Every structure is written in C-alpha cells, then in structure tokens.
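Narrative of activities, Objective 1.

The group set out to show that a structural description can be obtained from nothing but a protein's sequence at a throughput compatible with the screening campaign. Below is one input-output pair from the validation batch, recorded exactly as produced.
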Amino acid sequence: MRKAEREVKDLAEKFALLLRCDHMTLSVADGEAPYCVPLNFGAELCGGELFLYFHCAKEGRKLDLLRRDPAVGFCAARQMRVFCKGAAPCGYTTDYESVCGEGRAEILRTEEERLHGLQVLMAHYAAQDFPQTSFAPRALALCEVVCVRVHAWTGKRLIRPQVD
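Output recorded for this entry:
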C-alpha cells in the first residue's frame, strides 16, 4: 500500500469497515479483460479468516466464469464526503473507507451451507435474525449461494476532520 498511514491493520476494525459497505464489486477472469459485477454480500470471520457470501441466479455469465476459474478479486467501498479543500477542480477530494482483496469462490452445494451463507448475507442488511426455516424452499431452488474464501485483503481509510 503506497500510503501506509491510511491502511487499517487491526482485523476487527477492518472487518467492521467492510460491514459498513453496502455492496461489493466482484472481479472474475474473462479472457482479455476481467468481468466485474456489483453484489450484495455477507461476511464472517472464522478463526481470523474472512469468508464472503453472495447469491445469484442458477445460470449466467458470473457462474460460468466462476466454474472455469474460481479465483476472484473484490472491492467494497464507501464514500462519506466529497469536498473542496483548495482551488477547484483539482482541490476536490474524498473521505472514504475501502476493503479490497482476493480469494477463491466455491458454489455451495449442501442445503446447510447454502442456508448458512444466506443467513450471513441477511445479517449484513437486516436488524433481525432469520432462522434457516424462514427461507422459502421455492426461492432456495431458484438461487445459487457462493462463498469466497479470502486469502488476502486490505483495508484503507481517509477521514479528515470537518472544518466549519
């Protein structure tokens, strides 16, 4: 990381930063250029290891590419404030937080794994817990659940004090 003073190194703080992001972009290999797609996601730490979960339709480009090559990159970011700190337009800057990383995607097969992934995803967006029995069998039959086992990730933040 070029600006080391912006790196978020503490694992719990980096994870909390990730959970403040409302979506992530997944990048998958696709020939000459990566295929990038924004996703809703859930995240959990298990023994210091990060796992990301998302769901999607049972067919499509994303799944075709993941089946061919499960190596993925991801980025989640949130922009809190854009402001001008000097002469416009070059004086504009942004306060932000972001998490970027790499991992391997696995399309989950067992019902227990799939339901767990959906519970983690829902925990990211809803203030209530959803028991596994609350997921409709018909909806489950129409979606795939994917887990990304993250092997490298970094957090970065720049937040300046507001001046009135």
